[in-house]
Design brief:
Number of helices: 8
Helix content: 25-40%
CATH class of the largest domain: Alpha Beta
Strand order of the largest sheet: 3-2-1-4-5-6-10
Number of domains: 2
Strand content: 15-25%
Order of helices and strands: EHEEHEHEHEEHEEHEEHEH
Largest sheet: 7 strands, parallel
Radius of gyration: 19 Å
C-alpha cells in the first residue's frame, strides 16, 4: 500500500529535498502552501498534491482529503534577530500554524507528526535556553505538542537541527560564502571566527527524517520524543581553512572585520549518542562535499 505524507515547508531547502526523496521512494506527497508560495521552483511539482491555505485557516479539510500516514512539519519563519513589527509573523508561522496543524490531525485521526526544532533552543548547552525569539517560538510549539500527545493521542517526534548544507541551498549560508570567496578571490569580512559550527549534509538530514518516520510508524504507543541531527564540528576559522585547502585556493578572510552577533552561539549543545535519531548516522563528509559544491555537482 502506498504511504501518504503531508509536508509543510516544501518550498524550503530541507522540505524540498525531503519531498523529492519521499516521491522517489514511492510515497504520495501532499503539501500545504500559502497563496504566495512559488511552487514553480520545484522540479517535481507536478507529482505533488498542493493545498493552498490562508493564514489562520482551519486545516481539517486538508487532512480529511489527504489522510496522511506521516506529517512532516518543516515550515517556519526564521529570524536571527527580530524587530517589533515582525513578532506577529513569528507567532503566526511558528506557533499558530503548527497548533492548527495538530488540531486538524487530532480531529481527523492523523496520528504521526515529525516536527522540526532547532539546536538554538539549547543556548549555552542548557536543556532549554533560547538564543533568540525564533528559538523560543520553536520551544513553544514543542510545549503545545506535549498537550496534543497527552490529551489527543498525537504521536510527536521532534528533530532539532544544527546547520545544514548541500546543493540547491539558496539561503547563502557560511559554507557557500566561503566557497564563493575562494573561487572569486574576493575578500570577506568575518567575525573573529572562534565559534563552533555543527554541519550536516542535506542527504543525511533527509535520512534522519525518514528514519524518524519509520521509527514512529513502527510504534503502537504514542510517542513524545526529541532527537538531534548532529555531525561534524569545527570553528569558523577551521572551516575556512578546510575550504581553502580542499579547493587549493586562498580565502582572504578578514577575521574580526565584523563583531560577533548578539548572543552568538560559541559552543553548540553537544548531544550524546542516545540523543540522535535511532539507527541514524551521517554518511557524508564535509571535506568530500566541499569540492562537489564548488563544482556544482548534485
Amino acid at each position: 500500500m502506498t504511504r501518504r505524507a503531508l509536508v509543510t515547508g516544501i518550498t524550503g531547502f530541507i522540505g524540498g529535498a525531503l519531498s523529492k526523496r519521499l516521491l522517489a521512494e514511492g510515497w504520495r506527497v501532499d503539501a500545504i502552501v500559502r497563496p504566495q508560495s512559488n511552487t514553480d521552483c520545484l522540479p517535481f511539482a507536478r507529482d505533488v498534491n498542493f493545498h493552498i491555505v490562508e493564514d489562520g485557516q482551519d486545516l481539517t479539510p486538508v487532512f480529511a482529503e489527504s489522510r496522511p500516514d506521516s506529517v512532516f512539519h518543516l515550515a517556519s519563519l526564521y529570524l536571527a534577530e527580530h524587530r517589533p513589527d515582525q513578532i506577529g509573523a513569528l507567532v503566526q508561522s511558528n506557533i499558530l500554524f503548527p497548533t492548527l496543524l495538530a488540531e486538524a490531525m487530532a480531529a481527523t485521526g492523523s496520528r504521526c507528526l515529525i516536527n522540526t526544532g532547532t539546536a538554538w533552543q539549547n543556548f549555552q548547552g542548557k536543556d532549554y535556553h533560547p538564543v533568540n525569539l525564533y528559538s523560543a517560538t520553536k520551544q513553544a510549539t514543542e510545549d503545545l505538542l506535549l498537550y496534543y500527545a497527552s490529551a489527543r493521542d498525537l504521536s510527536v517526534v521532534t528533530l532539532r537541527l544544527f546547520d545544514t548544507y548541500g546543493r540547491g541551498d539558496k539561503r547563502r549560508k557560511l559554507l557557500q560564502i566561503l566557497i564563493d570567496s575562494a573561487k572569486s578571490g574576493d575578500p570577506i569580512d568575518m567575525s573573529p571566527g572562534e565559534q563552533i559550527v555543527d554541519m550536516t549534509h542535506i542527504d543525511d538530514v533527509v535520512d534522519a527524517f525518514l528514519l524518524a518516520a519509520e521509527h514512529q510508524l513502527a510504534q503502537q504507543r504514542t510517542l513524545s520524543e526529541t532527537y538531534y541531527v548532529s555531525n561534524e564540528r569545527q570553528s569558523v576559522r577551521a572551516l575556512a581553512s578546510l575550504v581553502s585547502e580542499t579547493l587549493g585556493r586562498p580565502i582572504e578572510a578578514n577575521f574580526g572585520g565584523r563583531p560577533y552577533r548578539a548572543r552568538e552561539v560559541m559552543h553548540p549543545f553537544s548531544p550524546q549518542s542516545e540523543d540522535l535519531v535511532p539507527g541514524w548516522c551521517a554518511k557524508r563528509r564535509l571535506s568530500d562535499q566541499i569540492l562537489r559544491l564548488s563544482q556544482g555537482a548534485d
